[in-house]
Specification:
This protein has 321 residues and is mostly beta strands. It has 6 helices and 17 strands. It is globular, with a radius of gyration of 19 Å. 42% of the residues are buried.
Amino acid sequence: MAQNLTFASESSALLRVDSKEQNATTGRKSVRITSKNQYSDGLFIFDVMHSPFGCSLWPALWMSDPNNWPDNGEIDIMEAVNKASTGNLMSLHTSEGCTMDTQKKMIGNSEWLDCHNSTNYNSGCGVTAASTTYGSSFNKNGGGIYAVEWRIDGIRIWFFPRSSIPGDIQVGNSPDPSTWGYPLADFPRTQCNIGQHFRNHSIIVNIDFCGDWAGQPNVYGGNGTCPGTCSEYVSRNPTAYEDAYWEFSSFKVYQALNISSSEAYNITNTLAANISRYPNYSASNFNVSRYNLSNYNLSRNTEPNYSGSRLNVSNDVSVTE
């Protein structure tokens, strides 16, 4: 049976999980999108209108090179499990030799300090935030902006509620992180070679089920969070996933071009929007790309592992069997 698990319009792009199958004993369908382009630095601005949450869910907006993990690192921008009552988790995952045991200027709270994937059950070096940064409260407030600045000096992540988005993000295309105040998460290079541990990343969005985090019995059912077992819940409760979707207004990617000003505005993305000059982000000239689903490869997946053929996606998409 064909299921429309993705949709794109002029104003937003939506990715959801199946909420129709009554007996999904072999896995409930979901989607994962991966950018065709890869990045090793830049300023990434995500306008997120709705985040998925609910028992058994493990959604994420992240960046990585899946074919060379953990050597090329992972940046988790938005991640939560089950009811997401504790808000957003931002984290880095790396090979050995990257820690965050140093003073940081940020709003969030450090949870773990060693980014090495073999420590703390691959928890990475994480930063937690308030409940309003993800899930029910986030959605009720209209979502907001997540901005990621990735430089050789470090990686910083800001969150701006819909009512408090900086003017240089709302109007025009001249974002200036130096005016945004403390970030929600700060990952400096003090004890981590950013250039060595993070490179060739694609932007990835997915909604997974259960797995080794959301499905852990003490996480899934701890303190009465969710009923039964995770796999049983996934297979028998289709209507529980009606609110399990991502909705994005836009993705914008800014990258420095270390060439002459006359050449500084050549676009590198195949399907990108118009380009103008962006003098405020550092001292360099930048190019910018707007992303919708036409800039992504789409794959189908079923719980617990991703599978399915890759598709090129146009403005209006559907996933067919």
